C-alpha cells in the first residue's frame, strides 16, 4: 500500500497535536484533609490540613519547652501530635500541582503545639492572611483556638501575626476550629467557624488581626443552620444569594456528609433564613 505525502503529513500532524491533560484523583499526593481552594495571582491554591505521614515520616517541628508541655495534655489523640505544620499546593490548570511545604509551622507560632487544622487563606491590601486552628481546645482553660498568620506571598512563609489566638475560647457552644474567611461584595470581611454542632460568624477588622462588633453590639453571632450541623462551615455568594455549607455526621463514619443552606446576607439575618437544604453529597453516594 502506498501513502501519498499529504496523507503522511496529515498523520504526522495529528501526532503533534497537544494531548489534553486530565486531572486525577487524588489530585495531590499524601494524606490531607479540609482542603480550601483559592485563586491568587492567576494560580489555583489548595490549603489543606496535614493528616498523616506517608511511607517517609515528615520531619518533626522544633518545639519550645512550653510547647512540649502543651503536648502532655491527657486528652490528646496521638495522631494530632503529628499535625504541627501546614503545606499548600498551587496549579495553573487544576491538573499539575506544585507542593509548597511547611508554609506555616508551630516553630513560628509560640502558643500552638499540635492539631494545626483547616487553613483558610485570603488576600487583603497586598498581603496574605492565613487563619488556622491549633491545639484542639476542649474548654477555656486550654491555650489554643483560631490564629492568624501573615505573609507577602500566597506560598508563605507565614508568621504568627498577633502572638496569641484571635479566638481562644468557646463562645455560643462553638469550639474554635474550622474557620473560613469570606469577603463580601462591599468589602466587608467575615470569619465563619465552629465545631461541636455550633457555628458562629464574626466580622474581621481591616487590619485582619482583630474583630469588629455587629450593629447590635455582639461580636460573636450564632448562625447554626441546622440541628444536624457538626463543623466545617464554608460561605460563598452567587447572584446575590449566600450559600452556607457545612459537614454533618461522624467524620470517621459512613454518615459523614455535606449540607447547605441559603440566606439573604452574609450574617444570615434573621438566623432562620439559613434553613437546611438537602445534603450536597455523602460518603455513600460519592464514588471514591
Q: Class by helix and strand content?
A: mainly beta
Work out the strand percent. Answer: 35-45%
The CATH architecture term of the largest domain is 5 Propeller
CATH superfamily of the largest domain: Glycosyl hydrolase domain, family 43
What's the overall average pLDDT, rounded?
A: 90
Percent of residues in helical segments?
Answer: under 10%
What Rg, in angstroms, do the CA atoms define? 22 Å
Q: Supply the CATH class of the largest domain.
A: Mainly Beta
The CATH topology of the largest domain, please? Tachylectin-2, Chain A
What is the 3D shape?
globular
Q: Tally of extended strands?
A: 18
- Measured between the Cα atoms of the first and last residue, the distance is 48 Å
- Integer count of domains: 2
SSE order, one letter for each helix or strand: HEEHEEEEEEEEEEEEEEEE
The DSSP helix count reads: 2
Largest beta-sheet details: 5 strands, antiparallel
Low-confidence stretches: 5-10
Amino acid at each position: 500500500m502506498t501513502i501519498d505525502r499529504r496523507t503522511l503529513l496529515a498523520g504526522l500532524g495529528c501526532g503533534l497535536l497537544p494531548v489534553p491533560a486530565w486531572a486525577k484523583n487524588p489530585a495531590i499526593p499524601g494524606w490531607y484533609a479540609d482542603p480550601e481552594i483559592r485563586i491568587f495571582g492567576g494560580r489555583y491554591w489548595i490549603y489543606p490540613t496535614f493528616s498523616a505521614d506517608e511511607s517517609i515520616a515528615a520531619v518533626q517541628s522544633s518545639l519550645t519547652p512550653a510547647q512540649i508541655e502543651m503536648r502532655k495534655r491527657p486528652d490528646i489523640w496521638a495522631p494530632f501530635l503529628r499535625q504541627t505544620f501546614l503545606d499548600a499546593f498551587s496549579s495553573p490548570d487544576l491538573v499539575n500541582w506544585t507542593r509548597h511545604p511547611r508554609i506555616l509551622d508551630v516553630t513560628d507560632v509560640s502558643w500552638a503545639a499540635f492539631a494545626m487544622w483547616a487553613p483558610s487563606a485570603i488576600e487583603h491590601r497586598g498581603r496574605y492572611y492565613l487563619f488556622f486552628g491549633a491545639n484542639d481546645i476542649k474548654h477555656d482553660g486550654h491555650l489554643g483556638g483560631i490564629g492568624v498568620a501573615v505573609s507577602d506571598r500566597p506560598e508563605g512563609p507565614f508568621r504568627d501575626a498577633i502572638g496569641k489566638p484571635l479566638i481562644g475560647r468557646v463562645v455560643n457552644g462553638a469550639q474554635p476550629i474550622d474557620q473560613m474567611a469570606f469577603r463580601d461584595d462591599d468589602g466587608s470581611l467575615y470569619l465563619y467557624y465552629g465545631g461541636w454542632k455550633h457555628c458562629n460568624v464574626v466580622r474581621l477588622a481591616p487590619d485582619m488581626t482583630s474583630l469588629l462588633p455587629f450593629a447590635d453590639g455582639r461580636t460573636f453571632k450564632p448562625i447554626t443552620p441546622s440541628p444536624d450541623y457538626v463543623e466545617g462551615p464554608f460561605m460563598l455568594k452567587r447572584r446575590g444569594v449566600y450559600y452556607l455549607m457545612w459537614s454533618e455526621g461522624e467524620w470517621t463514619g459512613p454518615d459523614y456528609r455535606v449540607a447547605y443552606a441559603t440566606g439573604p446576607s452574609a450574617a444570615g439575618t434573621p438566623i432562620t433564613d439559613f434553613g437546611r437544604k438537602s445534603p450536597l453529597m455523602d460518603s455513600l453516594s460519592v464514588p471514591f
